């Protein structure tokens, strides 16, 4: 599976890095005629939620073409023939992804720099051509309404949020390549700031505001104050301004608030969905059960957002 890209290869030092909720990540060294390359393997069973490995790789290549900081793709295959599951292999990029560790290394200057770099990365991603690689358009209200209905469960707060979103939806903006899970925790950060954007399994065609708002919900501040509402790094206004200055489409601030409500509701439905995977026995996991307890947090956030709207 590596030979077409790298020639004869010997693999050493294979080690698991994470066993995530959907896909596992491994690191290894590939010894080739030209030297040793540090690589990453991601693998997991196919499902109806996440992009296939070949589609994820195609989206990464499109983003790389516009200057987004992403790992180089070595190989990707939707077939389980080689490893028992579909897989994606990319270059290893050094740095840190664990948000509390990153936060301890940042001062005001480096935090502001990282915020600008995140905005610049999103602007580059949104400039990428999403056509012709198999990406599909995704409507957030339809998608998360369907997910919630599939579980046969809801809450009064969720229903109020869905109703509010339906009644106040802003005009659609031009479709772009959407990362789908752009947030702290899915970014590699090193001494120079943002090194790479990871975890593209939720990529789709949608609106740029989808990515911008997702970065700014309370869950991804990781305990930082509301004054640093954009990823715990800085203000939402500073983030959006940096995005526009980097060539991103001008952002309607009223529409962005709608998308913040939608993103918060989405996180609430995801929390309920992850718990359902545990409760149903599909994937028994203390981690997934604990995520289910966060449904009430998102209800609190939604009530605050809707009260201010």
Automatic annotation (TrEMBL):
- Protein name as it appears in the record: Acyl-CoA dehydrogenase
SUPFAM superfamilies given in the database record: Protein kinase-like (PK-like)
Q: What is the lineage of its organism?
A: Bacteria, Bacillati, Actinomycetota, Actinomycetes, Mycobacteriales
Domain spans labelled Aminoglycoside phosphotransferase:
14-227
Cleavable signal peptide? none
Pfam annotation, one family: APH
């Amino acid at each position: 599976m590596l030979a077409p890209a790298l020639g004869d290869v010997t693999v050493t030092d294979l080690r698991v890095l994470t066993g995530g909720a959907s896909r596992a990540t491994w690191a290894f060294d590939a010894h080739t005629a030209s030297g040793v390359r540090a690589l990453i393997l991601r693998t997991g069973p196919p499902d109806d939620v996440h992009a296939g490995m070949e589609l994820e790789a195609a989206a990464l290549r499109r983003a790389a073409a516009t200057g987004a900081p992403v790992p180089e793709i070595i190989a990707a295959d939707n077939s389980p023939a080689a490893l028992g599951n579909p897989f994606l292999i990319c270059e290893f990029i050094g740095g840190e992804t664990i948000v509390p560790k990153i936060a301890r290394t940042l001062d005001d200057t480096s935090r502001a720099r990282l915020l600008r770099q995140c905005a610049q990365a999103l602007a580059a991603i949104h400039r990428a051509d999403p056509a012709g690689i198999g990406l599909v358009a995704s409507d957030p209200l339809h998608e998360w309404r369907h997910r919630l209905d599939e579980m046969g469960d809801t809450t009064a707060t969720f229903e109020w949020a869905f109703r509010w979103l339906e009644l106040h939806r802003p005009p659609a903006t031009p479709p772009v390549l959407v990362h789908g899970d752009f947030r702290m925790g899915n970014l590699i950060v090193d001494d120079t700031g943002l090194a790479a954007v990871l975890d593209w399994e939720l990529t789709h065609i949608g609106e740029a505001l989808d990515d911008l708002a997702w970065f700014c919900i309370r869950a991804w501040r990781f305990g930082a104050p509301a004054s640093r509402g954009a990823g715990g790094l800085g203000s939402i206004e500073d983030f959006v301004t940096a995005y526009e200055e980097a060539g991103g489409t001008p952002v309607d601030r009223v529409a962005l608030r709608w998308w913040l409500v939608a993103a918060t509701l989405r996180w609430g439905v995801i929390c309920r969905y992850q718990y359902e995977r545990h409760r149903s026995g599909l994937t028994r996991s203390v981690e997934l059960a604990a995520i289910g307890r966060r449904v009430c947090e998102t209800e609190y956030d939604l009530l605050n957002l809707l009260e201010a709207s």
